[in-house]
């Protein structure tokens, strides 16, 4: 495994032997990024992803001594389910990240029941902090090389990846899995000071490295690797 930084392949890799070691690396990175942001502009923004991978990281971050009252947290994507549903990324964040020291953080959910895409975008616009360049964006990646809720089979895939689009939030149908999703789009997610991807296990690394080498545009994570807007910082743990 080697780091890469070329005109079209814009990523670096930080390796760890275990998930616990990886989480310690990420907590330290986020702590420093948040502290710098608060010092420079008075607040920090943190965009996180769902799934089982970041749960331990969220718990570790929640105990970090930061001025969380000045941190705005939102989601890269969300399933269109009630917040009480175990599939809800908002529930995951509230149960694991917005606890302990981080209980006072400002959490802005992506999905609200009976809210249209347009209303969601308008609600986000009410938080000027979320209209500026993000400080940290955490991505995940599925075995099919989807990231956020931008799926290979989705009819909305190309729209979500289009760098010329002014749309920041889009409803998507993954096709291969339920339910419907809301996702922040590629141009919005790339508008960040720090773009991180958390990967755990050789199976995920095999998917990532294969996609990175092949540069297959229909695999969504490819278009977060092969771009020169912001370096993708990959944190890889060999073991769970």
How many DSSP E strands? 11
Mean pLDDT reading: 95
Assign the structural class, choosing from mainly alpha, mainly beta, alpha/beta, alpha+beta, or little secondary structure. alpha/beta
* Major sheet description: 8 strands, mixed
Radius of gyration from the CA trace?
A: 17 Å
Overall number of domains: 1
The CATH architecture term is 3-Layer(aba) Sandwich
SS summary, helix count = 8
pLDDT < 50 stretches:
1-8
As laid out across the biggest beta sheet, the strand order is: 1-2-11-10-7-3-4-6
Order of helices and strands: EEHEHEEHEHEHEEHEHHE
Helix content: 25-40%
* C-alpha end-to-end distance: 18 Å
Content of β-strand: 15-25%
CATH topology: Rossmann fold
Q: Outline, from the CA principal axes?
A: globular
| CATH class (first level) name | Alpha Beta
What this model shows, in words?
With 240 residues, this protein is α/β, with parallel strands linked by helices. The protein is 31% helix and 22% strand. An 8-stranded mixed β-sheet has the order 1-2-11-10-7-3-4-6, with helices on both faces. Strands 5-9-8 form a 3-stranded antiparallel β-sheet. Strand 1 and strand 2 form a beta hairpin. The longest helix has 23 residues. The two termini are 18 Å apart.
SSE order and pairing:
Layout: E1 4-5, E2 10-18, H1 19-41, E3 44-48, H2 55-62, E4 71-75, E5 77-79, H3 89-96, E6 106-107, H4 117-125, E7 136-139, H5 157-161, E8 169-172, E9 181-184, H6 186-190, E10 195-200, H7 202-214, H8 222-225, E11 232-239
Parallel strand pairs: 2-11, 3-4, 3-7, 4-6, 7-10, 10-11
Antiparallel strand pairs: 1-2, 5-9, 8-9
Helix pairs in contact: 1-2
């Amino acid at each position: 495994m080697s780091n890469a930084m070329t005109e079209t392949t814009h990523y670096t890799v930080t390796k760890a032997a275990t998930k616990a070691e990886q989480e310690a690396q990420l907590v330290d990175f986020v702590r420093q990024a948040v502290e710098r942001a608060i010092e420079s502009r008075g607040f920090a923004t943190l965009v996180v992803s769902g799934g089982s991978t970041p749960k331990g990281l969220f718990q570790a971050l929640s105990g970090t001594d930061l001025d969380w009252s000045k941190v705005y947290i939102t989601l890269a994507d969300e399933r269109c389910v009630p917040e009480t549903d175990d599939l809800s990324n908002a529930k995951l964040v509230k149960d694991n990240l917005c606890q302990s020291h981080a209980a006072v953080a400002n959490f802005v959910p992506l999905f609200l029941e009976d809210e249209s895409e347009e209303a969601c975008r308008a609600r986000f616009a009410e938080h000027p902090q979320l209209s500026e360049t993000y400080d940290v964006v955490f991505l995940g990646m599925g075995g099919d090389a989807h990231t956020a809720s931008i799926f290979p089979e989705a009819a909305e895939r190309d729209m979500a990846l289009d760098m010329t689009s002014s749309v920041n939030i889009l409803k998507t149908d993954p096709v291969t899995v339920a339910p419907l999703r809301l996702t922040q789009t590629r141009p919005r997610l790339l508008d960040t000071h720090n773009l991180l991807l958390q990967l755990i296990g050789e199976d995920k690394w095999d998917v990532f490295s294969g996609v990175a080498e092949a540069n297959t545009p229909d695999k969504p994570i490819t278009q977060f690797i092969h771009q020169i807007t912001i370096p993708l910082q990959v944190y890889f743990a060999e073991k769970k």
